[in-house]
Write a structure and sequence with these properties.
Oligomer: single chain
Strand order of the largest sheet: 2-8-7-6-5-3-4
Structural class: alpha/beta
Helix content: 25-40%
Strand content: 5-15%
Number of helices: 13
Shape: globular
Bound molecules: pyridoxal-5'-phosphate
Radius of gyration: 21 Å
Order of helices and strands: HEHHEHEHEHEHEHEEHHHEEHEEH
Length: about 375
């Protein structure tokens, strides 16, 4: 029997997904390996959150709170939302993205996405049998909002903007994005993924949660995660903010969207410690400037990042060669788009990364002259 005949039609027709094609090799590494490949925080969570984690470890026998009341309430409070009915929590943004596909997408629906952007959105669109409409980024690797608006048709169900974007690190100014969202038709569910917003250093930056607070009635969901600036990728917690009428629809998914007790307890304390978060963002900004300049000095093309990672293209040397030479030296980075993406680590990690980069490019330069 060919088990593939059991598949749902939309899954049978599925194009290759880069994420699904991942090899079953453990991605755990020993502490001597510098993991600059997953945009994890090298600083880890707030010490107060760690205390909450140790406390929660003592009672693994009790179920977590089904509705994550404390977490949603604290999140609502931090973002100035009236109450927890404006908030959904799940096991990572990844899980919320899956729920969006389950709850909203029909075969034939169109989903407008930036290209390149976060692959998970394209994957759930395909799984649902809907059609991703890929809108190329502009020459600065930033969203082309005019083209995004022009891509909307009567079939458009959803539009996704990752701001800042991954894997490019680029950022659309908040006011510009707000004006853009306000003009979209009410038939389009707008999803703004703000996984990296805490790292943005531009003045006058704000979350699109502002629109929800101000009574914007068109469908809008803003996604946040604890995986990046909060340093809790291993705990798997993601959040969505929206009007209660919209948030309540997410519950129609049968997905077990509960978070475990360790994550719940920890995340509440992490949200309360905004001072720590600001410290992380500041350290990240210092390192971002240093690594960005370092790469430019080595002759690399560097895209302007407002995140905790940098997309760059090295001169002369293949991105895969850069990856493998760094990996031999226990520094892991990414290779998207025929380029390289390096997550920002601690000062020590980044200095090692730049030193190896300098060696690689120096050697290639000498080879060329010889
Ligand atoms: C890392 C990342 C997330 C976070 O996903 P989690 O499942 O919460 O770890 C979400 N969106 C984007 C664009 C990301 O880069």
């Amino acid at each position: 029997m060919d088990y593939k005949t059991l598949l749902r039609d939309s899954i049978k027709a599925l194009p290759e997904s880069k994420r699904a094609a991942r090899q079953p090799v453990s991605s755990y590494t020993t502490p001597d390996v510098f993991r600059l490949n997953y945009n994890e925080s090298p600083f880890g969570p707030s010490p107060k959150a760690m205390d909450a984690l140790y406390e929660a470890c003592k009672r693994p026998n009790i179920y977590p709170d089904w509705f994550s009341v404390d977490l949603k309430s604290e999140f609502a409070k931090l973002h100035g939302l009236p109450d927890m009915m404006h908030v959904c929590s799940a096991t990572g943004s990844s899980s919320i993205i899956n729920i969006l596909g389950e709850v909203f997408l029909n075969p034939g629906d169109e989903v407008v996405l930036g290209d390149p952007s976060y692959e998970a959105f394209r994957d759930v669109t395909n799984v649902a049998g809907a059609s991703p409409v890929m809108v190329p980024l502009d020459s600065d690797m930033n969203y082309d909002l005019e083209a995004m608006a022009a891509a909307v048709t009567p079939k458009t169900k959803m539009m996704v903007i990752c701001n800042p974007n991954n894997p490019t690190g680029t950022f659309v100014d908040s006011k510009k994005l707000e004006d853009f969202i306000k003009k979209l038709p009410e038939t389009v569910l707008v999803v703004v993924d703000e996984a990296y917003l805490e790292f943005v250093e531009r003045p006058e930056t704000y979350s699109m949660i502002k629109l929800i607070k101000e009574g914007h009635k068109k469908p809008l969901l803003v996604l946040k995660t604890f995986s990046k600036a909060y340093g809790m990728a291993g705990l798997r917690i993601g959040m969505a903010a929206g009007l209660p009428e919209l948030i309540s629809l997410l519950a129609k998914s049968g997905a077990a969207w509960n978070i475990n007790i360790l994550g719940q307890k920890m995340a509440v304390e992490a949200l309360k410690d905004q001072e720590y978060l600001a410290k992380v963002a500041k350290l990240n900004a210092i390192e971002r400037k240093k690594v960005s300049q370092g790469l430019k000095d080595l002759g690399c093309t560097v895209y302007e990042s407002q995140t905790n990672f940098i997309l760059f293209k090295a001169p002369e040397v293949e991105n895969t060669e850069i990856y493998s030479t760094l990996a031999q030296n226990k520094v892991l980075i990414g290779c998207p788009l025929g380029m390289n993406r390096v997550s920002l680590g601690t000062a020590e990690m980044n200095d090692k990364f730049l030193a190896i980069m300098s060696e690689i490019l120096d050697k290639s330069c000498k080879k060329k002259l010889a």
